[in-house]
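ugh ok fine here u go
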Amino acid sequence: MPRQITAYSNPLVKHARDLRDRRRRREAGQFLAEGLRILSEAQEAGRLPRTLFFADVSHPRAAALVQAVEAAGGEAIETTADILSKLSGKDNPQAIVGLFDDFGRSLDSLDRHAASIWLVAERLRDPGNLGTILRTGDAVGAGGLILLDECVDPFSVEAVRASMGALFTVPVVRASADAFLVWLRAGPGTLVGLSLRTTHDYRAADYPSPTFLLTGNEAQGLPEALEAACDIRVKLPMLGKADSLNAAVATAVMAYEVLARQQA
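structure:
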């Protein structure tokens, strides 16, 4: 039976609210996800929150989620919309918020043969871009998303929200660029870098399986040393005045090109 919490001073509420801070998330090994759609995606992927906060279970899926969490040994807590607003950081919060254990993976846990395309991002800063790239990864059947160096936290509330549930379906690994290159060169894999410092059109390249598609920082692109490590560097043609596409958009265009070429 769910218990009720209506006080901001409750230790569990304070703990959940603290998870909006990156340092606190890393210390606790936990993160927040909000909304019935995202939590339903998580459940379908086999992941349930450790703690579920809710203000309304009138929707059958919400009621079923409460039952599933309790049946799995988790805790369901009925609370107020004001407290949910504090947890999510939104004035109009979703009616349900889950507290999950971090499930980030390591490079050594990945099977590069599990998929023909993998997404890699270096020093990505915008949580919206990260979430969109995760959604692209889910859409093209990517084996995972590998985040290099100091990328935005994939478990931030904003990134989880932008992923629309893809965080739970696409494996995410965080690693240094050096560690990634050592791992990559220990087996098959073609590293394809998106770059403005090349004339090689993306439609003229071959993309053998597995292809690792590398996108750089939104403002600076890829550092020269990492570009030099790529097997292929390709460029999207820009026919207007803009010199580049948004990082997430460019990744999506490239991912579908790789997929199309591999399936041809």
